[in-house]
Design brief:
145 residues, alpha/beta, Rossmann fold, 7-stranded mixed sheet, 4 helices, 23% helix, binds adenosine-5'-diphosphate, binds magnesium ion
């Protein structure tokens, strides 16, 4: 992903968001942090299924929301982590997740509710904002910063 990457797309179904995730997977290389921002139901988990399956690390049906376990790990040599910060409140709870350990690895780290980490990511990251437009329409803004 280039430093000035900044674009948006509109998808019209969950399948299109999955496909967009698969395509985007071809553009990213570890180490890479992906912050996913947007309300509940905006499609963050759906996009993550596309990303992780597109990276070839799991089938899309094996990628489930880490709402309770908070961090899911995929892959062996090449690793991806899928983190959900929805239930995390405050810096102390955040510290219990062991994200420093995750960030120290040459992995792809995908974080739902990533707005909670903005300003705390050590290097460059991909910020993906998802917005609900209509029942099946989502605007996806991708920015590399
Ligand atoms: P989040 O992780 O942001 O809460 P999910 O991916 O779990 O969102 O859920 C998105 C919901 O919206 C799913 O029920 C999905 O079927 C639905 N949906 C409808 N249209 C789209 C779309 N274009 N892209 C992604 N999800 C969509
Ligand atoms: Mg989710």
């Amino acid at each position: 992903m280039k430093a000035k990457t900044h674009f948006e797309v509109v998808t019209h179904s969950p399948a299109e968001t999955l496909e967009f995730g698969r395509q985007l997977a071809g553009e990213i290389q570890a180490p890479c942090v992906v912050l996913l921002e947007g309300d509940l139901g905006s499609g963050k988990t759906t996009l993550t299924k596309g990303l992780i399956s597109g990276l070839g690390l799991a089938r899309e049906d094996e990628v489930t929301s880490p709402s309770f376990t908070l961090v899911h790990e995929y892959g062996r040599e090449q690793k991806a982590y899928h983190v959900d910060l929805y239930r995390i409140e405050g810096a102390r709870e955040l510290a219990t997740l062991g994200l420093d350990e995750v960030f120290s690895q040459p992995a792809i780290v995908i974080i739902e509710w990533g707005e909670r980490l903005e300003g705390k990511i050590p290097g460059p990251y991909l910020k993906i904002k998802m917005e609900y437009l209509a029942s099946e329409d989502r605007k996806i803004t991708v920015e590399y910063r």
